[in-house]
Amino acid sequence: MTDFFINWVANIPGFAAPFALAALGLIVSEKSGVLTLGAEGYMLVGALSGVGAILLLGGYPMAALLIAAAVTSLFSLIFAVMTVTLRVNQVIASLAIIFLGQGLTSLIATRAGWLNVPIAGLGKLNVPGLSDLPVVGPILFQQDLVCYLLVPIFVGVVYVLNRTVIGLKLRAVGDGPDAADAAGVSVNLFRYGAVMAGAALVGLAGAYLSIGIAKLWVDGMSGGRGLIAIALVIFARWHPWRALAGAVLFGGIEALIPRVAAIGLQVPQYFVMMTPYLATLAVMVWASTRGRERAAFAMPQALGQPHTREERH
Amino acid sequence: MKAKFKMLLAAVATTAVISTAPARAEFKLENPPKIAMILLAQKNDGGWSQALDEARQKLEKDMGITIPVIENVPENATAIRPAVELLIQRGTNVIIGSAFGYSDTFKELAEKYPKVAFLNPAGTTNGANLESFYGRTYESQYLCGMAAAGASKTGKLGFVAANPFGLVNWTVNAYAMGARQVNPNATVTVVYTGAWNDPVKERAAAQALIEQGIDVVGQHVDTAAVQIVAQEKGVYGTGHHRDLSEFAPKATQCSSVWVWDRFLGPEIKKLSTGWTPSEYGAFIAMKDGGTDIKCCGDAVPKEVADKITAARQEIIDGKRQVYAGPLKDREGKERVAAGQVLSDGDLWKMDWFVDGVISQK
Fold first, then answer.
1. Which of A216, A266, A267 is the closest to B225 by Cβ?
2. What is the pLDDT of residues B184-239, one digit of tens each?
3. CB-based contact B208:B159 (threshold 8 Å)
4. What is the architecture, at CATH level 2, of domain B3-136+260-287?
5. What residue numbers bound the domain in which A108 lies?
6. Nearest 5°: phi and psi at A77?
């Protein structure tokens, strides 16, 4: 039983990381007022560019993660141009990004011969001395780099959003673009920046799926995880730490499902597969009973609204 | 291949209908066969589509003709129809499909183009010039179960499966029955991922099984992730769709493989001489092609490998039936009476497990 518990908990960070990074990326993007639902497309682009970078470079998974984030960021320029400059409906543009991501990755993977090629991927990083500790060792100190960096990344992003002028302006653009504009903040510049920075994080999540977990590329391998990340953002009310908690909850359940089956525990499997969604529902009910949100973490007021300078309302 | 799920429903439904259909007319091609294939995914998807493409290449070689292929045709009529009609306009008179989701459109097109023959694996529709076909994968998975038990030191086998319905469950049961031919105490613990093509879930399932002390993992999912995990962890695995030892040469001990060319070759020959498509589709046994095994890896002892070779021959000769009675499920209920063989209808709706299978409800 102890082994079961350790194996389960030790696997949670790996399952939680893609959800957490994708949700954080979406929060950054949406804090600027751009409704971003194309995470599924971003994740696929990130996942394929990660595998592609490893195959082209002949290794270097860390570099591949950065390349994947950069490529996804560039890919999101399409979305930024559509929504910020051309003011296309953001839901429609998001759907276009999902389908473009699916088609493009499938095409490139086939043409480049990256489909179904096993890669060495991201290895576990042991901490000398600490990794051999009983219980704590496997859980905390036998993870890969992305899992170790998960909390620092969150700390950094939250700091920028809440404690810097850049973060203040970004939130202002998402809450009241007209006022921000009047105060001399370039709405379009901040929205471009937020969309691209957010996409980099979602792309990192996708690359982690292919480089860190699956260690190969197959078409459509994000398997709906981008959609779960969107649900996490709404459920966390655009609050990064709550999104991380939600990701850990989902990761915990995803790590538990096959383990419960593998020990042959006699519970109906459809019930087990339902648990992530049941948990979401329960937490949402709990959250809704917890009074009013702090204004800073509620939904961005101008979410989904294109900004037109000096437009009369 | 969620596709196949509905094929099951249709198959069950068709067996329930009492047939009053008139004697079927014979179909004959007017011109020499000009064949084309349309594929659901890319031809190098590593699994289902690639197996069909390999059959296409063998047919090209055997018949000395070129068989064009159109890839990535999704399962909807607006994508299938233009592809097929373009081929027909160019003189193609034999269309080979690749998916359940082509069934209805193929039926429609077969009626519109009565002089063209349509063949569709994993399909559900049939007609005067249209035949669906699928393989009896339980025969090959039974043999791979034998190999798995031979390679296992603990007798604890695992199996990563997609979704719990008939055509998956019959491979799980066959795997366990095959394993028990070699080791009467073998158990097969099955984890369903709920997806056909999700390497992340497949990897998680394989890891969870190996953590429980399982040392050979079989699979009925589409990617090679399970075999790769087995190799990483220093245990063994058995594959599905194609010979997966290319992904995990040390781990993969046996693979259940599609050998569609062995079925399609003779079937296409019949098109020119006179062909009557099976009324409920062709459900192909190993002796007629469909599935076979690629066996065995180094970890399978010689005497077990010999036993597998003998069992394969018996299956081909019809001397051994995987689902022969008397057969009880693990609750003790009799599923096949002595002297009987499980019917095709019961195969498609299989929702029970034999002794030795450990699964959730």
1. A216
2. 999 999 999 988 888 999 999 999 999 999 999 999 998 899 999 999 999 999 99
3. no
4. 3-Layer(aba) Sandwich (3.40)
5. 2-116+127-297
6. -55, -35
